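Weekly structure sync, notes
Attendees: PL, DS, HV (note-taker this week)

Item 1: Peptide deformylase
DS walked through the input record. Source organism listed as Christiangramia oceanisediminis. Sequence as pasted into the shared doc:
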Amino acid sequence: MILPIVAYGDPVLKKKAKEIDQDYPKLDELIDNMWDTMYNAYGVGLAAPQIGLPIRLFLIDPAPFAEDEELDEAEKEQLKNMRMVFINPQIIEEEGEEWAFSEGCLSIPDIREDVFRQPDITIEYQDENFEKHTKTFSGLAARVIQHEYDHIEGILFTDKLSSLKKRLIKGKLANISKGKINVDYRMRFPNMKKAR
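Item 1 (cont.): predicted structure, written out as tokens:
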């Protein structure tokens, strides 16, 4: 089932999310619905706060980035085969020299800005079967994970911009929070009872 994506300005996007356990109600159904929602919106990642749930859960499928001509074959293959669920993740290390990449967000449509992040991360997490993993990711794979991880920490990519950039997009952000935007996927806007 396709769920509405919560728009910028909703308080759930600024909350630090809570851990969950195997008894979380209808978790398999929730994960299936999140996949449907993400693919319907042509996203490469989706965090639970983006559908209104302040829990430590996100999923990624960065396969569309594998089309990037500048990537080497190994990175393309990695991105093509990275459909993953992260439950209760904890980034334990971020390394390397920060690099910029133009990021966007399904909760903040029509805004893309360069965000600086470190290229290498090590993350501990549980998969959808609650099996524990510790893995290291690099490049675009690491960036997608960092972006979604920020969501469960109550951080948006716009929080990482310079004060000048923030001022320049302030009006656009205000319009998104008021629902004054056209998107081709379902969204739920603050101060509006129903999704549209």
